[in-house]
Structures are given as C-alpha cells and as structure tokens.
Design goal:
The structure is a homodimer. By secondary structure, the first copy, chain A, is α/β, with parallel strands linked by helices. Chain A has 15 helices and 17 strands. In chain A, a hairpin with an 8-residue loop joins strand 6 and strand 7 (about 135-140). The longest helix of chain A is centred in the last third of the chain and has 20 residues, at about 390-410.
C-alpha cells in the first residue's frame, strides 16, 4: 500500500511553523507497514491544492491530508479534496452537536458550523481535543482519503484513536519497532559490533545517534503485534549479550525517567551540585512527575564562594586545583551528600563554553562525580572530534551523571575504562 | 518569483526525523520576498526524485533541494537533479581539497570524493560545517536550482552565508521583519488592541503566541533593508505607545538573554530558589554564555527541610501556610538573598502537576517572589483556560520570574494588576 501526505497551510510555507504533523503521520504509517512515498505542503490556495490532490489520488492508494479543516475562510481542505475526489459535502448532525457542546451553547456561528460539513458517506473521525472533526472515505477511483486537523494536539490523538484503527482494517500486517537504548558507546562502534545483524531483512536493525547517546532500532513486520514482538526478541537478546551493561533499557522514555524509577524502587534519594550545567541536571530529574519522592535538594554553585558555603568545598582545593578539577567535583559530590542527607550526590564542574577555555582546560572539559557518602567516583569528559556547543556539553554532562547513577543503582562499575 | 522546496531522504518519510530544513529555508525565502508555493519530501529513489524535480523546474522560477548530497550510495540528489536540469557533473578541485583538509589526509575515499562532483558551471556554495558542498545553477529552461546539505547545522549557515547572498542578486526587493516581544498580555487582547493596525498591507502586522508569551511581527517589503526598516519604525513606535511596559524588547533572543544583559549593565547579581521549577530557572539563566558574572548561586529545594536548611524558611511558615503559599515564596526569595549575598533573589513554589493538586491548591497554582533584600514582591499564577501540562506550568513560572526581574531592573512596577 503506497501513501502520500499533503499538509495544507500557508503558515508552513512561511516557515513560521515546523511541520511536525508529517513526522507524526509518517511514524504511524511506518508502524502499519504502509509505504510513504511523498509528502508535500501546499498553501491555502484552492487551485494548487486541487491539482496536488488530483495527482495524489491518481498515483497513490492512500492520501492523508492534514490541516485546513477549521472554521475560517482560508480552511479549504474539505471542499477542495471532496470535489477532487468526486464527493459532495453534507451536514453531519452528530458533529454539529459536538461543536455546540464544545462552545457550551445551542447556536454556533455559521463559520463554526462549517466544520460539521463532511464528505457524504464518510467515516467521521471524532475530535476529542478541538472542534474540527476528521474523516475517512474512498475516492471514486478507490484511493482512501483521510483528513486530519492541523494542530498536533488534535491530530495525534485522532490519528491514534480513530485513523489508525480505520487503516488497520485495510492492511493485513503490522510493523513493530523496539528501541534498545545505549549509553557509553557511540553510534559508529555500536554499528561495527552489530555489523552482521544489520543485514537482516525482517527483523531489521538500524543504529541512531541522539544527543550524545545512541540507540538501536529493531523492526519486524508480521501478521500481528505478538508475532512481530517474538521476531524482535532474539535480536534484542543478542544486542544485550554483546553490549551488556551499556544497554540501559528497551523502549524507555529517557535516562532521567529510568533513574527516577530505579531510585523509587530502591527507596534512595539523590541530590545534585552543579556548576557548569547550571541546574540542567536538577531540571531533567524534576521533569519527571513524582521525582519529589527521590529528590530533596539541588545546588547550583557557579561562584567559588557558593561552592564553599553550600557544599563545604575546601578553599584550599579550589586554590590548589581550580574550580574545574577532579578534586573539586569530588568535593562537590561529597559536600551535597553531607548537606542534603541524601543517599547519593552528584557534583559537576567544567567549562561549557563558548568562552572561558584555556589550553590546559579547554571548552568541553567537564568532571562529573558521584558519591554515596563512603565512596566517590569521578568521570572526566574531554572534548573530542568536532566542536560542539554549550548546550551539547551541558546536556552530555548531565546525561553522564544520570548514567553513573544508573550504573551505581544496578550494581555495575560506576566508571568505565 | 515563485519557488518550491524538495527535501530528499527516506528518513523524513519514516517520521524518524522532523523536517526542520524546510522551515529554515522557508523563512529565508519569505525574508527575501520570494513566494514559496510548494514544498515536498521525496525518498532516496532516483525515479520519483527525477519526476518531482522535472515538475518543479517546469512550474517554478526557483527550486531549492535539501539533503542527499553526502558520500553514500543513497545520496542521489546531485546526479538526479543535474540530469533532470540538463547538466553534467564535473569534479570541483577546490571542493576536493576542502574535503581532503577536513579529513586531514591527502587521499580521500571514492565515496568522499563523490561529494566534490558538482554540476558544470555552477556556483559552488562552500560548506563550513561539513564535507558536502552545495551549489547553485540555472537549468536549461532558466529555473534557478540550489542544492543544500541535509543536516540543519550545515544547511543553516550555508543558506545564510552563501545561498541568500546569491539569491539577493536576482530579487529586487527585500522583506524585513521585526518582532516586538511582549510579556504579561495574551495574544487575543494584544490582537484586539492592534486591530486597526493589522489591516495594513505594507508593512503588515501579525500577532503570535509562544509558550506563554506573545509577540507582534512587523513586516515591510522595500527596495532595500534600510527603507524597509524605516517603514517598520512608526508601527513599532505605535505598538510601544499602546503596550508600554509590556513590551520587553524588539528582536531580542529571549527573556533570559535580556535579563542577563541588563544585570550585567547594572552590575547586579541574581540568585534563585526553586521548588516546582526544579532548576529550570537557573538552567535558563545559565543557558546564556557569560551569565557567571551575574549569577553565583541557585538552590533547588524540593523538600521542606531543604527550604528550611538552605533558605532559612521558618518552620512555622511551612507549618502554617504550607510549602505552596505566598508566605513561603516570599521567605524563599528573602532567604536566597541572605544566603547568596546577591542583589536580587527569586523564590518559586507551586504545583506543576500532573499530580499533587487539591481543590484549594490546584495544579498550576504557583507563587513567584522577587526580593531585593529590603522589599519583596509576590505574583500568584492560577491555572486558567485549557489544562496545560507540567512543562508548560514550569516554563511559564520561570518566564514570569524573569519578567519580574526585568521590570525591577527597568524601574517599572514589579507586579501588575
């Protein structure tokens, strides 16, 4: 089954809005084993839209339209697509009532009512997060046409809850992907280690790099989800065998989500002492709802005086080794454990750039320490390869800290050669 | 001048990557006054790509291709586009030398060398951030064709430094936009206040909402930049007259960048005490390079004990009013000033959700306090309208804190009715 997407909206052609709808729909189609051959963006122009829809209906089995279903005059998708597909619009009473309820009144304006006019005989896709319903129908030549609203907060749930189930009826296979998340080994060496596994056609295996981490995606096509899962399982097992402790999870949301979960399970608390990451690590931990049970306190100590006052870092250490040093990171981690009474403490100090680097201590040099009150481990990150920016250095240092906590909690060596 | 974009890459059709290139190019075209009529994504398939390029060259004056210029076998853009445009590829010696230098060796592999083969007679667009050069040339029918590399970190600077100057020669007008950044007034009331100004055709005025803030974009088309600026100026002036202190800047990068700059100018220091924002405010301040001169210390105090120990919040206040209260926010702000010795201190406490809300203290209730050591101001944020998520509540609370600092530094009333 070959598909294409047409997104409608002049704002997408002015670059004011990034077209995330296409990626959302593309992932869903990929999971259904439907080949997406084209995607296009057309402005709010009836003539150009008509031409694009006609071409798509002629060459593809499935056309997904996003955007242009709203109440205003420049929302042209339904009229234009229905005409190109040889269908008339008809008032859909249920949708009108939903719109009336949404606005909490009996009489809705003509503009708002316009949204309830849908192609005759279509399957209505209910909008649980807005006013414009979507729809699915077959064009005269047999091409399936699906229309979804533009706002991603409306499109994503409608796609998942109504459009995908509709499409599942017409495809007889599913594609299932599982992501094996890896920390501490880069994309290139991981790909090399998995070289022989990457020739497989079903399941397939592909490596991806993402913000200083990498993951392997295992994808299988089968008649149903269970069968696809069973095909993925031995490949995931083999990856685990080869990468061991560097695999931190399968299909996990993030390192911080995993760490918060493991801290909760073990009833342990973590505290943070940050210099160059400036609160980013604490922010990432507290991004996770429920983190208050494992996180009492974090200190952002940019100034040396703050490191001394809040974290008991000895003045002599700062004097002798400087703020960016293994010794300071160690003292920060130990100091925050003492200050907070938490089970574990992280200390991070380094040079995030773009300014402040020297020959001895270049931008990107960051020390990360983990202490449990009786023992302390330090990892030194040095800049290698292409120049990265401030955001990247900060993000990677925070990730490294999270992975050290993960390793500690899982009983693995905290530092890796 | 009518343009279209074709992005090449199967990964874009699998939804693994969001197509940000199109938005970047679209904004640049918009600024040049070039109409973008279509954008499309085609996979790494020579036949479909050829058809798409042929259609584009026939109907548009300008075609911009992104992606598929790299060294691997599925990088087909140059061969396919050159063939469709009636051009041969030729080895470009300078580009080959740049690739050799990049890899720090004399002999580069055949794959890498492939990147230096470019359409005969083209203008080469140098890649300062990678190996694959871009190029610009005219097809046989006169359509201008520009090819840019896919990675946004390579595409964006090449576009700005080489492709835009190339295009400027062929357009005889420029479009200039200025953004008027507003805090404390929403998009809808701002739009209403500017109603009469929004009918203008040149310059135009349009309101945008962005993560709890809003801005007005003033856009003028003229023969050159200076003239366009002069056309925008009176509109910007009028907006300033109407919105006054709610305008925090024209074309500024962010609230945090503005606040760090103003703190630097006034030689003042700021410290932060965060509960529900969990380090996000400190993170946003330290996102700004050079912030170490104005930011010594931040505390993330999730637990009540941490609020008492680090910020001297009296036990009685926590007992009597709870952690989420005006009194606690006030004590946190005053406490961090005392603890840090900074000129200004922020205290934030609230319920970011999704859990932890009650009828008296619902999710979204957040108190933000600013203290200068002698006086303290508190703003209460209450959840209104549609339910927002944890990230939104945290972001908006941090923005509110930054705006309070901005108001203080500019001598405006810190709190607004």
């Amino acid at each position: 089954m070959n598909a294409e997407i047409i997104s409608v909206g002049t704002e997408l052609l002015l670059g004011q809005v990034v077209n995330t709808d296409t990626a959302i729909v593309a992932r869903a189609l990929s999971a259904l084993g439907i080949n997406l051959l084209y995607s296009a963006v057309v402005g709010d122009n009836a003539e150009r839209l008509k031409t694009a829809v006609e071409t798509a209906i002629t060459r593809s089995d499935l056309l997904i339209m996003t955007g242009g279903l709203g109440p205003t005059a420049d929302d042209l998708t339904k009229e234009t697509t229905a005409a190109a597909a040889g269908r008339k619009l008809k008032l859909h009473e249920d949708s009108l009532r939903r719109i009336q309820t949404y606005f909490n009144e009996k009489h809705v304006s003509e503009n708002q009512e316009k949204q309830a006019w849908l192609p005759e005989g279509c399957t209505v896709l209910q909008n649980d997060n807005g006013t414009a319903p979507g729809c699915a129908f077959q064009a005269e030549n047999g091409c399936t046409v699906i229309m979804l609203p533009g706002p991603p907060s409306e499109l994503a749930p409608m796609l998942e809850n109504y459009a995908v189930p509709y499409l599942k009826k017409s495809v007889n296979s599913v594609i299932v992907s599982h992501n094996v998340h890896i920390y501490g080994r880069g994309e290139a060496p991981v790909a090399q280690m998995m070289d022989d596994l990457m020739d497989g056609e079903n399941p397939t295996l592909a490596p991806y790099a993402k913000e200083g981490e990498c993951y392997l995606r295992v994808t299988a096509k089968a008649a149903d989800e269970q069968q696809a899962d069973e095909m993925c399982a031995p490949v995931i097992e083999e990856i685990r065998n080869r990468l061991g402790e560097f695999v931190y999870g399968i299909d996990v949301e993030s390192l911080e989500a995993l760490v918060v979960k493991e801290l909760l399970q073990q009833g342990k608390k973590l505290a943070t002492a940050e210099s160059c990451t400036g609160g980013l690590l604490a922010k990432r931990i507290t991004d996770i709802s429920g983190s208050s049970a494992v996180f009492d306190m974090g200190c952002v100590t940019y100034a040396n005086e703050a490191k001394e006052a809040l974290l008991y870092v000895p003045h002599e250490i700062l004097e002798a080794h400087g703020a960016v040093s293994e010794e300071t990171a160690r003292a920060m981690a130990e100091g925050i454990v003492r200050r907070s009474g938490s089970d574990l403490g992280i200390g991070i100090t380094g040079i995030a750039g773009p300014d402040g680097g020297t020959e001895q201590k270049p931008v990107g040099l960051i020390y990360i320490a983990l202490s449990d009150g009786s023992q302390t481990w330090v990892v030194k990150r040095s800049p290698i390869g292409r120049t990265k920016n401030r955001e990247w250095h900060r993000h990677c240092a925070a990730s490294q800290a999270l992975d050290m906590v993960r390793r500690y909690l899982e009983g693995l060596p905290v530092t890796v050669e």
